[in-house]
Write a structure and sequence with these properties.
- The longest helix has 25 residues.
- The protein has a single domain, classed as Immunoglobulin-like.
- By secondary structure, the protein is an alpha+beta fold.
- A hairpin with an 8-residue loop joins strand 4 and strand 5.
- It contains one helix and nine strands.
- Keywords: Signal.
- One of its GO terms (cellular component) is membrane.
- This is SRCR domain-containing protein.
């Protein structure tokens, strides 16, 4: 093999390795998200935006559902590292069974990058709400 062909082959293998690694790294920062707290559930997806895009935050989208008409509403909320839980987003019919849509980004406006975040489903019951914290969602 000539020197030129070796350089082209090496460059091609290097590019394939770098592109394969980059796509693998991105795949680790997204995926399905399914949570159930016993009276409500969330079914959807999550991803982290790249640094400098969409505040580099956690994007969550899907359905928040109240599974029982028990007089208690169900909502979802999220957060990223260092911040408190976001405002609540639930189904639009209050305490009756049904689903509402979720499509939000959770981010720290002082940064362009968030390392990890959380999303949870809560039941608006008597006293302190009952919440099921999701697994930590990593970039």
């Amino acid at each position: 093999m000539t020197r030129g062909k070796k350089l082209v082959a090496t460059a091609g293998l290097s590019a394939a390795f770098v592109l394969g690694f980059a796509s693998t790294a991105h795949a680790l920062g997204s995926g399905p998200l399914n949570l159930d707290n016993g009276t409500g559930h969330f079914s959807g997806q999550w991803e982290f935006y790249p640094q400098g895009t969409g505040h580099g935050g956690l994007h969550v989208w899907g359905s928040v559902c109240d599974d029982s008409a028990d007089g208690n509403g169900v909502y979802g909320q999220g957060r990223v590292h260092g911040l408190s839980w976001s405002s609540q987003r639930g189904d639009s019919n209050g305490s009756a069974a049904g689903c509402g849509s979720e499509n939000r980004e959770f981010y720290d406006s002082a940064t362009t990058y968030s390392s990890y975040g959380y999303y949870q489903v809560c039941t608006d019951d008597l006293g302190s709400d009952t919440c099921d914290v999701s697994a930590r969602l990593n970039r």
